[in-house]
Design a protein that fits this description.
alpha/beta, Aminopeptidase, 6-stranded mixed β-sheet, 5 helices, 16% strand, binds zinc ion
Length: 258
């Protein structure tokens, strides 16, 4: 790997932020409607896409001047945030397709997203940079009758120090910015479950890649499919604060004794 470059202050100890939104769309691509003809109203639910996640991802990319990669088709076709192993990326509508048809779906929709993001991160890591990848998602307030008791979740791998410390700093900043918000670590899913960040962690070393998933409860959506403006501001402002706090850590300022 190349020489470490000086990190821009805006991103703390990171040299690049990459924002992704795997479940940004519930569109059914031309030619795929026959596969999803039984999906009907499922398309507009959390099974079809992550309501509220795309505008949040766009706002994050704008605020931090970050490249943004979004899914363009419903995850009922193929899920960009699941691996192809053992057919995990396929839904009940596509799992039973023959291997060639599944491979075609992967070639058309899954691989281009995965490759584009991996290449963007790879270029920066190869140049000695340190990449923060944030995957933006939303979750349904009630799943199989159980009410989720959090508003925001940050998913990460607790064994990766960069991820752990940034998430702690982000949650601390959020608690100050929005004291009423219920925020949890690795909820409603574990950051180490099958997902795009989990795949990327196998590829990029912990000092050069931090993969975090931001999960927002769809209960907080206002006016259709957009998050409350104040919440969006608080989520992004607290991330900026966390990055500033982490930058001071990296620069090794005076620390309180243990
Ligand atoms: Zn999602």
């Amino acid at each position: 790997m190349g020489r470490r470059r000086k990190a821009p202050q805006r991103l703390g100890g990171f040299t690049l932020l990459v924002v992704t939104c795997e479940h940004a769309s519930n569109a059914v691509p031309r030619g795929a409607s026959v596969l999803l003809k039984g999906a009907g109203s499922l398309l507009s639910t959390h099974r079809g896409w992550d309501r509220g996640a795309p505008p949040l991802a766009r706002a994050m990319a704008r605020r931090f001047n970050a490249p943004l990669f979004t899914g363009a088709a419903t995850r009922l076709l193929i899920d960009l945030n699941r691996s192809l192993e053992r057919g995990r990326a396929f839904s009940e509508f596509t799992r039973g397709l023959d291997p060639l048809a599944r491979a075609l779906l992967a070639d058309r929709h899954w691989t281009p997203h995965r490759d584009a993001v991996t290449e963007e991160i790879g270029r920066e890591v190869d140049a000695g940079g340190r990449v923060l990848h944030i995957g933006v998602h939303s979750f349904t307030p009630v799943l199989r009758g159980v009410r989720r008791n959090a508003d925001v979740g940050l998913l990460y791998d607790p064994r990766r120090a960069l991820e752990k410390s940034l998430c702690a700093a982000w949650l601390a900043a959020l608690a100050t910015a929005a004291p009423g918000l219920r925020c949890r670590k690795n909820y409603p899913y574990l950051g180490t479950s099958d997902g795009f960040t989990t795949t990327l962690r196998k590829r990029f070393p912990p000092d050069h890649y931090a993969g975090i998933e931001l999960e927002v409860n769809q209960r907080l959506l206002r006016g259709g499919d957009t998050l409350d403006a104040a919440l969006t501001r608080n989520l992004l402002g607290s991330l900026a604060q966390a990055l500033r706090d982490e930058a001071q850590e990296v620069q090794g300022g005076p620390r309180p004794g243990r």
